[in-house]
Design a protein that fits this description.
76% of the residues lie in helices and 1% in strands. Helix 8 packs across helix 9. It has a two-stranded antiparallel ribbon with strand order 1-2. The chain is an all-alpha fold and 280 residues long.
Length: 280
Amino acid sequence: MAPSFEFGIPGEDTVSNAPIQREQFQSETTPLSEGAGPRGSVTRVASLAKAGAAAAATVAARAFGLGAVGFVLGIVAFFVEKGTGLLAHPSERWGALVYLLLLAYMAAGAIGLGAAGMWRGIGRVAMNLVQEHKLCQRIVERVFERAAILAEGAYTPEILRKPLPIQKLRDVLSRAITAYATSDDDESGLGGFSRSILRRLKLRVCLHVETKLIELIGEETRNQSTVELTLDRLHALAEEELDGRVMDALDGARNQQALLWGGLFVAVLALPPIVLALLR
């Protein structure tokens, strides 16, 4: 019997539409697929690498710049306090020991304001990576790719639309974010210090992304009264709202750290005059 080639003749009813359906289904989930938008993905990775290389210089410049200002302010503050009598004490030995405070003031200025500058620099770079270089979008893409694998055991488009229990969804996202944050994704081509800075920035942004994703899950389940949620739906919510929330969190964190270290510098300058006034 001659073999039948019936399935390959155009126009026959036996022609399968499965390849077309598969292609259409995959096209609907391309934002989460490994090869989605190769040109955009490569461009984004290159942009992140370039920004990561510049991040170290930005952070160092802010830290050393404000550290130098703090060093000078420590010297000025010491001589102002000494000249106005705030550091005076009747002890004869105090005349020589008072200059130990000069060293303390200089160190407090350099360390306190230097650390404040470092955190301001880290915050500024992180916000720039989120706003200009779409770091959040990159993290979300990679995290949801990993989450789909963790949820199913192998990456399949179907898992994106399969409702998952909320607790499992949270657990999967947490594991996926940890895996991405500790990986070397998006760090290729960077030197040691630049790679370290970008890794720390990735970790910090990932922590905010995880927190905000958990908040989105809570809001969605509360508003819709659902106990299950799909990765596809959560990804859509993240694209709509995540950037702004992470930017606000990063801005608050950098201001908090800067105020903390700046407050330490002020406390070091204020404490000796108060103590000496009580001893006099």
